Amino acid sequence: MMNFEAVDATDNAWRFCLSTRLTGAYPKPVLLRSSWHRFVEQKGCFRIYRVVFFMERDEADDGQEVHFTV
Length: 70
Fold this sequence. Notes:
Layout: E1 2-7, E2 13-21, E3 28-31, H1 33-43, E4 54-57, E5 66-69
Parallel strand pairs: 1-5
Antiparallel strand pairs: 1-2, 2-3, 4-5
């Protein structure tokens, strides 16, 4: 399980929890409902919407620090 924070276009920080679902033919990444549901409700998302996460490594810090944008 991995916890991470992502910033949206309005500079609001959102905390998410990424886990791996082990059922089925192969493992699948999944955002836990407890962290995802609040974001969906606040943004008024619908099933037809697509949410994209971007990851950027801080080169000044030898790529050790990672920033996420949603």
